[in-house]
Design brief:
The protein has one domain. The strands form 5 sheets. Strands 1-2-8-3 form a 4-stranded antiparallel β-sheet, sandwiched between helices. A two-stranded antiparallel ribbon has the order 4-5. It is an alpha+beta fold. About 40% of the residues are buried. β6 and β7 form a beta hairpin. The protein starts with a helix and ends with a helix. About 5% of the residues have low confidence. The radius of gyration is 19 Å and the shape is globular. Helices cover about 35% and strands about 15% of the residues.
Length: about 300
């Protein structure tokens, strides 16, 4: 339940209040802890931004990704029994980025063939926690009397493939993060934010009016050194599967490599039968690990 003080914050500035509650939840939740070392966080303080639910980008995604990719209006409509008549025309999207902690990044930097155990834990337990963050944001917005849905938690959420982009989902957290001004894509298919490329993304669609965050980049590759001036190929060199080239990221080759090396087992105390997909070598020991390399290089030159 929201405290009276929290409700006052929402009344004064809904966007700032959502950011405050989201950051407090992430940093204070016992679920945001490594299972084997409860003192260590899985994620650092999140980045929080907002997208306009009517942003033309969402309709463009139907062409760029697949016709099945949902607009915010479709995502919210599909979650309501009343259908389109229940959904206002003006919607907002809350988008957040959960940066992976320094302690975890350090363990993955030294790896060359497979992810570190701590990185694997982040991929598995971190995604479980990401779902808790989604539920929390929906709960907060619902308490305020708003409609809210986390598309990734809905029965309609699907992953599929097509000839144009390979594997895709009908709601992309990274593409929503792009719409919200968090950052841009990279040669490795990752997403480069002001806190770098090592993170997880999440989002919730709502009818609560929120100011859209400004996008400060020229295009969807503006933060990647390879696309800016061709000076970086670090992720190509880091990929043990050879799935990254100057032509981009081969998702099927990437997944095939992960299947071939097998999944890393969880600790005995946390169910050895569970397995974890995800490598992340291209997200560590690269210039975009901690921030936007284009801006870092410019600042250094000055």
């Amino acid at each position: 339940m929201l405290s009276s003080k929290a409700k006052e914050r929402f009344h004064a500035d809904p966007a700032a209040a959502i950011e405050h509650e989201l950051k407090a939840f992430v940093l204070g939740s016992p679920l945001n802890r490594m299972p084997t070392t409860r003192e260590l966080l899985i994620f650092d303080e999140p980045l929080v931004r907002f997208a306009d639910g009517n942003d033309p980008l969402y309709k463009e995604y139907k062409t760029l990704i697949d016709p099945a990719h949902l607009t915010p209006f479709e995502a919210l409509t599909k979650s309501l029994e009343g259908g389109p008549a229940m959904v206002p025309s003006q919607l907002s999207v809350v988008s957040w980025v959960l940066p992976i902690t320094e302690e975890t990044r350090i363990t993955n930097r030294v790896e060359t063939k497979a992810p570190s155990r701590r990185w694997s834990h982040t991929r598995y337990y971190g995604e479980e926690f990401s779902n808790e963050v989604r539920r929390f944001v929906v709960q907060v917005l619902t308490e305020l009397g708003a409609l809210a849905v986390a598309p990734m938690l809905q029965p309609y959420f699907r992953t599929s493939s097509n000839e144009r982009v390979g594997l895709f989902s009908n709601w992309s957290e990274r593409h929503t993060a792009y719409a919200a001004g968090h950052g841009t894509f990279s040669l490795s298919d990752g997403f480069i934010t002001e806190r770098g490329i090592a993170h997880r993304c999440g989002s919730v669609v709502t009818d609560l009016p929120l100011p859209a965050s400004r996008r400060t980049y020229a295009d969807h590759y503006s933060n990647c050194l390879f696309y800016v001036d061709g000076s970086c190929r670090a992720c190509i060199e880091r990929c043990p599967a050879g799935a990254i080239s100057e032509q981009g990221h081969d998702k099927l080759k990437c997944m095939g490599y992960l299947r071939n090396i097998g999944y890393l087992p969880m600790p005995d105390a946390y169910d050895d039968e569970k397995s974890v997909a995800g490598c992340g070598l291209c997200q560590t020991k690269v210039p975009c690990e901690y921030g936007i390399p284009v801006k870092i290089n410019k600042k250094t030159a000055e």
